[in-house]
Amino acid sequence: MLATAIVGMGRWGQTLVNSVQGKNGANIRFVAGCTGTPAKARDYAAEKGIRLLDGYEAVLADPEVKAVALATPHGQHAEQVIAAARAGKHVFVEKPFTLTKASAEAAVEAARRAGVVLALGHNRRFLPAVAEMKRLLAAGEIGTLLHVEGQFSGPGGFAYKPGAWRADRAESPLGGMGGMGIHMVDMIINLAGRFCDVRVVSQAKVLPTIDDTTAMLATLESGATCTFATLAAAPRFWRVALFGTDAWAELHGHERLTVCQRDGDPVTRDFPVTDIERAELEAFAAAVAGGAPYPLPWEEAIHGVSVFETMIFAAESRSTYAVP
User: Fold this and answer.
1) 3, 4, 288, 324: least surrounded by Cβ within 10 Å?
2) 186 within 8 A of 122, measured Cβ to Cβ
3) How far is CA 181 from the centre of its chain?
4) For residue 288, what is the domain's CATH number?
5) Both ends of the chain: CA-CA distance in Å?
6) Are 79 and 135 found together in one domain?
7) Would you say the pTM of this structure is higher than 0.70?
8) What pLDDT is recorded for position 170?
C-alpha cells in the first residue's frame, strides 16, 4: 500500500482521493495532505482519515509519506516536483505538467537523479476505447493516417471569478487549454505521435477573465494534419477522431467508438465505464512497487508541455510556430 499525501484539496484533489480511498483492492492510500485553505478541508480530511499538515514542507518531512499527488495550480508544479524528488518522494502530478518545456525538463531531470517515479495525470490514456484505437492504428486497419481531429470543451469558464487562480491568464493561457485541452493534446500524441508545428487562434468572445475559444491547426511529425479546439464557455463535449486511407475511427465521449471502413458502414461499439482516476493512481502505485512502468513516458510528457508552450507563442503572433 503506497502511503501518499494529497497536495491541494480542492475539487480535483478530492476527486483523486475519492477514487481510491477505502476502496477494496486499491494499492494506494492517502494518509496526509495539505492545502491553501485548511479550514475548508478540515472536515473532509477527518472523514477520509487524512492527517492535515501545515504546508508542503511538512508533507515532504513526514516519514510516513512515500509519495505525493499534486493537485495544485499549474505554475507551482515544477518547483513542487523538484522539491519532492530531492526529498525522495515519488510524484503524481496533475496536468498541465508544467507551463514551459525548460521547467518540464528540469522536473524530469530531478526525478531521474533521485530515482523516483514521476507520473503525469493524463487519465484518458486509461480508457479501453483508446486502447482499441491504438490497436487499430498499430494493426494497419486505419491505413495511412491522414488527419486527426480533437475537441475537449465545457462550461467551466463561466465559474471563473476574478481573483481565482484559474481566472489568472498566467495560470490559464489559451483559456481552456490548462483544464481541458491539454488532455486532448496528450491524446493526439498518444495516438498519432509528436507534433511538428502549430497555428493557433485564441480569443475571449464572452468571458471577462480568460479566452473562451481556442483552435489549432497542426502538422504531426508523421505528416498527418490535425485540427483541435477547446471551448471554455460551451456545453461539455469530448471527441477524438482518426482519418486514414482505409478507415476512420471516432471516439465520442469516453465509451462510444465508431469505426467505418472505406467501403463499409459505420459500426459503433460501447465500452465499459472506467474509473480513470483510480486507474491512473493504481498505475502510479504499481510503478513505485517495481511493476510496469507508468504508461506515459517522460519524453511524451515534456513534448506535451512543449506543444502547449508553442501554442501560446503561435496565438500571440497569429503565425505558424515549429514545436521544439
Assistant:
1) 324
2) yes
3) 9
4) 3.30.360.10
5) 39
6) no
7) yes
8) 84
**Which structural domain range is residue 210 located in?**
124-322
Say how far apart CA 24 and CA 116 lie, in whole Å: 26
Q: State how far the Cα of 226 lies from the Cα of 306, in Å rounded to an integer.
A: 16
Phi and psi dihedrals of 223, rounded to 5?
100, -15
Averaged pLDDT, groups of 10, the chain, 324 residues long: 97 97 93 95 97 97 98 95 98 96 98 98 98 98 98 95 86 90 97 98 95 97 98 97 98 98 97 97 98 98 97 93 95
Indicate whether 285 and 148 sit together in one domain. yes
> Degrees (nearest 5) of the Cα angle 147, 95, 68?
145
Last residue of a domain, one of 82, 98, 122: 122
Residue with cell 503506497: 2
Both 87 and 149 in one domain: the answer is no
* Residues 130 and 248 reside in one and the same domain: yes
Q: What is the pLDDT of residue 116?
A: 98
Residue 220 near residue 148, CB atoms below 8 Å: yes
* Statement to judge: residues 46 and 29 lie in one domain: yes
Question: Cell numbers at residue 290, please?
Answer: 517495481
Nearest by Cα to 287 from 156, 162, 110, 111: 111
Do 77 and 160 belong together in one domain? no
**Helical pair 11-20 and 276-288, crossing angle rounded to 10 deg:** 70
3-state secondary structure 139-151: CCCCCCEEEEEEE
Out of 106, 122, 138, a domain closes at: 122
Query: What is the C-alpha separation between 48 and 269, in angstroms, rounded?
Result: 37
